[in-house]
Write a structure and sequence with these properties.
The chain is an alpha/beta fold and 385 residues long. The protein is built from eleven helices and 15 strands. Strands 3, 4, 5, 6, 11, 12, 13, 14 and 15 form a nine-stranded parallel beta sheet that branches. It has a two-stranded antiparallel sheet with strand order 1-2. A two-stranded parallel sheet has the order 7-10. Helix 3 packs parallel to helix 6.
Length: 385
Amino acid sequence: MARDNQTTHNAALFNPITAGDITFSNRVWMAPLTRSRSTAGDNEQTPLHALYYAQRAGAGLIVSEATQISQQGQGYAWTPGIHSDAQVESWKLVTDAVHNAGGRIFCQLWHVGAVSHPVFQPGGGAPVSSSAWTPEGEAFVGDRHPDGPTVPHEQARALTRDEIHAVIEDYRHAARQAMKAGFDGVELHAANGYLIDQFMRSGVNARDDEFGGSLENRLRLLGMAIDALTEELPAGRVGVRLTPIGGAGGSHDEKPEETYPAAAKLLSGRGLAYLHVVRATDHGGADDNQSRGDAILKAMRENFDGVFVANGNLSPEDAVRWIEDDRADAVAFGRDFIANPDLPRRIALDGPYNEPDYDTFYGGEAHGYVDYSSLDAVHDPLPGG
């Protein structure tokens, strides 16, 4: 039986929004969520992934789990790739399922840089970064190492200039592969302390060439990657994700208030679909000074001329306020989408919400992945649906 009073105070989340070349049905977007359930060794997707994503097709946009652009780019066990033809074929199961369910999905293109381990690297070599650097914490290697599932990170080596250009070609190739796999677009993962962020952050980047030193130089790889992606597909089908504070490996920037608004300005004027920015939260070792992080987000929004997407510990009520206050155009939800495959419907009805099972976030099979309950989708249409 339909509920009599659908929550009009959430209506701001259900206005359609045009981002780049696509109009999305609502502003409740699904954030990229690593779940470590791809096939061992081949890093391919399966029918289980197709079911998982199709269950969440009510999102205005699904951003896929982070997907490595090359073998060198992998940093975690059982995460998917997009660089082999077999991986492309496996992703077609997912994109077809999402489209058949009425959804949209972008592929998040990922290179972890130093936040890896030799067990994932070609020939067992050292991970790579902007400079020689050893991330804090441990690598999640699963069954790839006898001391696993986690082992300490090892020192990464600095990429040479020629290798940097080779990485750009890997991004270019991954964009082409994503289109072959049926994705609606791609999101450049330039966040969370991974490779591009390792070039941007002064606490990691100690280079003295055109890729290091000045802020302009530290942002060069970001600009080159975007140039490559937008040469392969329309700019209106390319998004970017940035994280001013926090992320894997404990990296930091000495002046994020300068670096990340400058990055937003660099991305402006290119016709990109959106800029997706993660707030400072307790996830990923971020600074607990949330007000500082939110001030940076405000400056980034002011420096970017397109659709601005906020992510990071925002409740549905927070999301409404952020949109109504013009702090964001859409909000990406992470853990809420893990536990609530029909999250937009639940937000429209003001709940109830399932609680996530944190023990099943990474690794495993169907349990904690595709077995969360959904509300009756027949009698409770979304606003405007």
